[in-house]
């Protein structure tokens, strides 16, 4: 349970960090370390060079950028959870954090690190997808922007390359009147999700507009439920519609079984949680 | 790999050392500083036994490298008592039987310390949520919750006395 030896680098600015990543060596970025260090302790990860970005204070921000809330690579979960900007514009994130890990882990862990780790049971990849976040990915000499739906590829897999850093996440502020819902079942609060369902929607003349729904913890990767969204769009909210949509979503999902929950149970959770999330989202939309 | 020199403050005392980068903060505290009060349980961030307070925040010392603590202020369980006088949180754990084997206790104390600094009058639910990242295999948690509730009252009372003292 001790990490293997590595070369430790602690750059003082982003350009120096990017240069280290471009060196061609087997490098890993150390931000909060709440997923990477356990993997190193188990020797599941044995990087030759560890690039500690904790001194890059230029990346430690949560800022209002017009129509967007921008969150830098070094913003810790605890800071985001208690941010007045997040509570005002993106309360679904503040609520989700009470389900994510524990205070001591949230004190160190970063949102961007969590997204790059891309654990299948992680809530934030699903939330990024319904908020239609944009991920700003930097390397020496260039930046690129990736839509959240294209960022997550599979279990622990994203489109980010070895010489790149996810420097910023850009979260569009939801339109006025947008309601949201969040439900999760896990063995214990803060533990890996067996099933998380998240949704946002608006009501327009009493009918559902812009429904966005995603699952986490169920399949190998957080997924938007496109068929459910299509079925809800333009409909008046009602219990039998929500039950039908949940039934169809439960049938369509391809749950991955884990040691503590089987596929059939995860389907049951989708069926049970989806109507609750939709009801909450309707109740919160104005 | 190349060792690095670090300087940090632990329990109010400036400490200097040369460490290999792979040394975990938990091992550094126990082995290099000879402060074995910080306990190492799972070594992958699940059990909370190794929690210490770094710059005012409870963190898992098994998920930090000692080199990262350069310049930090750290409080371990050894830094809580003043001489023979237990810290009010420790006193409350003593009085309320908040420990049995004691393995989880240093981590529980660090967690309680941060909780009560942020929230002087937590509800039982808030206490439960705060310690949800600390595993105890003896007490069933109820006595720990009572202890933190009692510690909160002690600290509130101590703060009131301080404020009311004539200048």
Automatic annotation (TrEMBL), chain A:
Where would I find the FAD-binding PCMH-type domain in this sequence? 1-176
UniProt keyword annotation of Oxidoreductase present: yes
Q: Which UniProt keywords apply?
A: FAD, Flavoprotein, Oxidoreductase
Q: Which InterPro entries match?
A: CO_DH_flav_C, Diverse_Substr_Oxidored, FAD-bd_PCMH, Mopterin_DH_FAD-bd
Q: Name one Pfam family in it.
A: CO_deh_flav_C
An MF annotation (GO) of this entry = FAD binding
What's the protein here called?
Answer: Xanthine dehydrogenase family protein subunit M
Q: Which organism is it from?
A: Roseobacter insulae
UniProtKB/TrEMBL annotation, chain B:
Q: Which UniProt keywords apply?
A: 2Fe-2S, Iron, Iron-sulfur, Metal-binding, Oxidoreductase
Pfam family of the protein (one): Fer2
Looking at the record, the residues that make up the 2Fe-2S ferredoxin-type domain are 4-80
Ranges that cross the membrane: none
Q: Which organism is it from?
A: Roseobacter insulae
Q: Spell out the molecular function terms from Gene Ontology.
A: 2 iron, 2 sulfur cluster binding; metal ion binding; oxidoreductase activity
Q: What is this protein called?
A: (2Fe-2S)-binding protein
